[in-house]
TrEMBL record:
A Pfam family annotated for this UniProt entry: Beta-lactamase
Signal peptide positions on this chain: none
Domain named Beta-lactamase-related: residues: 15-329
Entry coiled-coil feature ranges: none
SUPFAM superfamilies, per database record: beta-lactamase/transpeptidase-like
Domain of life: Bacteria
InterPro entries per the UniProt record, alphabetical: AmpC-like, Beta-lactam-related, Beta-lactam/transpept-like
Protein name: Beta-lactamase
Amino acid sequence: MSELDTLADRLGARLTELIAECSTPGAVLGVYSKGEFTERGAGVLNTRTGVEVTPDAVFQIGSITKVWTAALVMRLVEAGELDLDAPVRSYLPKFRLAEESAAASITTRQLLSHTAGFEGDIFTDTGPGDDSLAKFVDLLHDAPQVFEPGELFSYNNAGYCVLGLLVETLRGKPYLQCLREDLIQPLELTHAAVDAAEAILHRAAVGHFQPDPDQPPQPAGVWALPRSLAPAGSALTMSARDLLTFARALMSDDGVLGGESIRAMRTEQVRLPVLWGNEDAWGLGLRLTLVDGVTVCGHNGDTIGQHAFLRFVPERDLAVVLLTNGGEVAAMFEELFGETLRELADVEPPALPVPGSGRIDASRYLGSYGNALMTVTVSQDDDEDVWAELVYTGADGIAVPPQRFQLLPYDGDTLVTAQPQRGVHQPRAFVGADEHGRARFLHMGRALARLPETP
């Protein structure tokens, strides 16, 4: 038995324990290392049907699809059809936003690196047809500018829908067809689907929610987000092996992309605020983290009750995938990935955020922040404890009740939740300063702007 199989057996046994601890109906863990693949599954795909998870089961990968969209864009760069630093309007002349100067200047590079600065949490369903992306991008004409293009990082779903339309326009075919013909087929993936009609041909997972912690997880009432969000994360469903195969292609220049494009995707474009550490950055479609002197590339994906994780380490020829259909799974992934990183890459994973202690001078943090998806109000009580109250408007099919949580010291202007969320204490960074010295943004991966009505 190989070192990889020995490790996988141990992690597979732990996976069975973890899905019970994390209220996760089912999961698949996949590992690729130096030419070898292995997967382990546990649990069920659907609590209503009881169908067991097998290693070849398919799960939605959510926003990991953005990495696929970035790869399609880089193929256009390689073909000489696209300049990353030319305005998007060079290729999409009808592209409009609420702020004309921003729409005229935003580049493909800024869209890929989440630095375009316009409101990105827009989830409008524009229908199931091939024109859904064009209709969606047309709706962005009144999307407000949160900050100047290129100023900072803020995760932007809508920006990737613009990239999808860019791919469609330059390739002359629908985005889903580009996925099939330019990536899925060349990689010879056999358990990858671009929509529900294809996914149902496989052992497909269903997302789950647990509104009542005293009751078992229940299947979600909606299976997938609308097609208009395909380039941002509503399209792809696949097995762990197929996602690992894609990751392997991003570590080698003999696949669907050349070496120059792959290196560009893995090159820092923007540094992130202190959320998970001081060494987090974003490349072209990829989150980049310096861990023990080694760069870890990756992306997470959340859809309706499904959560996916991808990490790969080019210097070690290692990739890890976790696919799940519900539960509090962030800590689950960190444990399994951390063990893999130690065993196969000789790299010590970073410590998870731990709340500090002491009084917080919250004067510049107090107030309300928001975007199209949520509003967060930060307050301080008579005991000088700092609280955040989140009201989430959400997307169709995703129901999240209001949340109130305490914030504790972590790292300078970054605080951290007192209680774990999705199994991990979540950092919240306060960024910038207005004319009164108050934070301009509450950063949670997305930059939530201070609301103007806040005193």
